[in-house]
Amino acid sequence: MSNIIDILQKEIEGFRQEIKAEKIGKVLEVGDGIAKISGLSEVASQEMLEFETDGGVVNGIAFNLEEDSVGAIILGDYKKIKEGNLVRHSGRVLSIRVGDKMIGRVVDALGQPQDGRGPIFTEKDEEIFFPVERVAPSVVMREPVNTPLHTGLKAIDSMIPIGRGQRELVIGDRQVGKTSIVIDTIINQGKDRRHPTPICVYVAVGQKESKVAKIVSTLKEQGAMEYTIVVSAPSSASASLWYLAPYAGTAIGEYFMHKGKDALVIYDDLSKHASAYRELSLLLRRPPGREAYPGDIFYLHSRLLERAAKLDKENGGGSLTALPIIETQLGDVSAYVPTNVISITDGQIYLEPELFYQGIRPAVNVGLSVSRVGSAAQTKAMKKVAGRLRLELAQFRELAAFAQFASELDESTRKRLTRGQILTEILKQGELEPISFDKQVILIYAGTNGYLDDVPVASVTETAAKLLDYIEKMHGKDVLNKIRESGELSADTEAKLKEAITEFKKI
Questions:
Q1: Which residue from 147, 221, 261, 378 has the highest number of Cβ atoms inside 10 Å of its Cβ?
Q2: What are the backbone dihedrals phi and psi of residue 317, each rounded to the nearest 5 degrees, phi first?
Q3: Which residues contact 256 (CB under 8 A, 6 or more apart)?
């Protein structure tokens, strides 16, 4: 008996009561993907929250920090959350796991695989997390944009050049070829032998799952998934995932940028992203402004697009290029979100429905499209031949408007109209047919110097294809290779090119 008493006494003496203090919150109300929480006085903005439910833990983000409550957006199934459920804050802001193994995969806005090919990372892989929201690189860390990012589209590479580290907006009505332009750009990256291939991140916001699947299969067929990551927040996903997807795509791109590589992020499209943010803001009772968007809608996109940069050598020399897409309603570029994004970006490619229906594809309106980086991001060869192109097309558009009403035209006017029609034909391009910049230089050179002026307009496309084929077979080494390797059209190469075109015309 005494032994038992001794043992009990020892146990009692060794007992230490540990009091663990933890700040928790309680769900006051929940619905439509958002929750209102009481407590959590020390929670940070954009911090991850954990909702304890009967079916396990559901994640959320602290979105609204009010005096007596916290407004949160829920990232999982909000129907599992009930009033009175406990909420804990995690102490870390929303981050996604990134790494080289993501290349070739389809992920959601939280970095989880969506392609049915199993987990992306194993336990042995290094854990690298990048915050979804991050401060943009400062001015001191950047350097001027000077390296071209070739899209493979003649109209864009010649007149609206895009540089690595630039933000170029693709804007136009629905069904005029915005997505086709960016998909062609991704495909062309693998074919540009002059510069290293950038890692491409395609962010699909609110797209049909069938459309995303079609884009992924197209990229696989063209061999472009070898350097592409697709971030999908489909139309069936919640508004909170639509809101997060572009930031997640940027975080993935930044991982490669900070490794000293080039990355290209495409946001398809930011109009749906803005409407998702408007939905979340209205549900959280934020005061509405113009077109019912909240007051910080400009900041929503500026803090996203400002993360695109060309870093200087001291910071690794990587770059992140952004190609946001905005959908307009009946060509109205003066609406709230389009004007906001135009003012943030370094230029825009405006696609016009009228040109699209006339069969001019890509339907780029050269007058309204602009690249504020301009020829700084062009090779010397393209700069040399494309200088006259924009001027000739501008004069052609002006004359074409007057020529409709004029019964008789003088010879010089007729020549200019013919030249304009031929150049318009040269710039036409089919879908999934990107052309290397050296071949573009040859076609634009032939067009602007009048070598195709005597070709019937209907035969220009066919003749241009034959010209390229002839030069590639007969003068590949001394013309095409020289332009590709040097990036210049030297006097010697130009003389050989003239000779080759003259030979071709005789044949």
A1: 378
A2: 70, 15
A3: 199, 262, 263, 318, 320
Nearest CA to 464 out of 492, 495, 496, 424 is that of: 424
Q: In angstroms, rounded to a whole number, what is the distance separating the alpha carbons of residues 441 and 74?
A: 52
Tell me, what amino acid is at 354?
Answer: E
Catalytic residue among 372, 388, 390, 419: 372
Helix axis angle, 491-506 to 437-448, nearest 10°: 70
Query: 341: alpha, beta or left, given left = phi > 0 and alpha = psi -120 to 50?
Result: alpha
Q: Please tell me the pTM assigned to this model.
A: 0.93
Q: Residue 360: which pLDDT band, with cuts at 50, 70 and 90?
A: very high
- Give the burial class of 138: count Cβ atoms within 10 A of its Cβ; 0-12 exposed, 13-18 middle, 19 or more buried: exposed
User: CA–CA separation, 360 vs 381, rounded Å?
Assistant: 25
User: Rounded to an integer, what distance in angstroms lies between the CA atom of residue 135 and that of residue 118?
Assistant: 32
250 CB-near residues (< 8 Å, 6+ apart): 134, 201, 265, 304, 307, 308, 320, 322
134 as an active site residue: the answer is no
